[in-house]
Amino acid sequence: MSIMRSNTEPSDERGLVGVIARLNRRLLPWIGPPPLGPYDTVTPAEVAETRARSVCPICGALMSLHEIDRTGERTQMRHPTPEEIAALPDAP
After folding, report:
1. What letter would DSSP give residue 7?
2. CB atoms within 10 A of CB 81
3. What DSSP line would sit under 33-91, residue for residue?
4. Cα–Cα distances in Å, from 48 out to 42, 51, 58, 60, 64?
5. Where is the composition biased (Basic and acidic residues) (predicted)?
6. If we measure between CA atoms, which residue out of 65, 63, 57, 68 comes closest to residue 85?
7. Is the pLDDT of residue 1 over 50?
8. Contact (Cβ atoms closer than 8 angstroms) between residue 64 and residue 77
9. pLDDT level of residue 87 (50, 70, 90 thresholds)
10. How confident is the model over 24-48, as pLDDT tens digits?
């Protein structure tokens, strides 16, 4: 007849599970719990600035000049024409 334990304490574990439980119990006071949440704080202004400077991988123009249409079944992107790029005040 075998006896099954329903409420198992970490110290009662055997094998690899027990080794990991004992290791966690010993190290937790020194290393603490794992970090959660964002590892760096990025402000919305920094995100907007990065997006404004991002370029299209296809045509090389700024992504802010593109028109993205998500109304249909498939997303479509319209690239700016060379004339539209040249008409910008800071165009080369």
Report:
1. S
2. 12
3. SPP-S-SS---HHHHHHHHHH-B-TTT-SBGGGSEEE-SSSS-EEEPPPHHHHHTSTT-
4. 10, 5, 21, 19, 11
5. 71-82
6. 65
7. no
8. no
9. confident
10. 899 988 988 887 877 778 888 998 8
Cα distance between residue 48 and residue 61, in whole Å: 17
With left for phi above 0 and alpha for psi between -120 and 50, is residue 32 left, alpha or beta? left
Burial of 12 (0-12, 13-18, 19+ CB in 10 A): exposed
Query: Residue 59 is which amino acid?
Result: C
For the whole prediction, is pTM greater than 0.90?
Answer: no
Name residue, tokens 């119990």. 25
Listed residue (37, 39, 7, 11) closest to 24, CA to CA: 11
